[in-house]
Write a structure and sequence with these properties.
alpha+beta; 26% helix
């Protein structure tokens, strides 16, 4: 990923927060034939307790997914993978820039936040591991509901059947990099104008995440 210094996001806590806020990832792998495949799934981040890796990402795919057949006997699958987490993003029109009225020398751009997790992927076909994972996934995405649904709300034999239809994936992160392009390299007057445009014209509730203006 192209990384100008002013847009680099490398604080470990900020990277973890970015993943937690946008956990639906694109998981990119390459087959033995050299073909790239992209799967789309939620991934949970678990920080490492020491060691060289920042942590792991855990999720699951359908048992019928082509990523799984022929590899289930290899619990330490040596497969390089890339998980991409897309955060907030928005088109920025030059009509918001004060410079448009002054001299017109302005162009559009796009503000966005993204995190790339590079590492090695393994597949996990273990009933207890999968049951724990789906419970954690459920707790994560039900936590803000007034009456959260829980895995135990469904019959145990039904959950066991559903778990037999999936395969776990675990990515051990070797490199974590993030990018936040939020107009932070622009003059303050321009950043304030962009923030107002995002709020008033585009209606972004999270406009502050798309423009680092320093204003409320």
């Amino acid at each position: 990923m192209y990384q100008p210094n002013q847009f680099r996001l490398d604080d470990p806590d900020a990277l973890k927060q970015a993943i937690d806020q946008a956990p639906f990832a694109t998981l990119v792998t390459q087959s033995e034939k050299g073909e790239f495949t992209a799967d789309h799934l939620p991934l949970l981040f678990e920080a490492a307790d020491g060691g060289p890796s920042p942590g792991t990402l855990r999720g699951h795919i359908a048992r019928a997914n082509p990523l799984a057949p022929g590899r289930l006997d290899c619990q330490t699958l040596d497969c390089q993978a890339l998980a991409i987490f897309h955060g907030p993003q928005a088109y920025i029109t030059p009509s918001w820039y004060p410079a448009k009225r002054e001299h017109g020398k302005v162009v559009p751009t796009w503000n966005y936040q993204v995190v790339h997790a590079h590492g090695r992927l393994r597949l996990i076909d273990d009933a207890d591991w999968l049951k724990k994972l789906v419970t954690e996934l459920t707790n994560r995405f039900e936590r803000d509901r007034e009456t959260p649904w829980a895995v135990n709300d469904a019959p145990a034999d039904f959950i066991d059947k559903m778990c037999r239809a999936i395969i776990g994936v675990e990515l051990t992160i070797e490199r974590l990099e993030g990018k936040r392009k939020a107009s932070q390299h622009k003059p303050m007057e321009e950043r304030e104008a962009i923030l107002r445009g995002l709020r008033d014209e585009s209606g972004y509730d999270d406009a502050d995440s798309l423009c680092l203006s320093g204003i409320d």
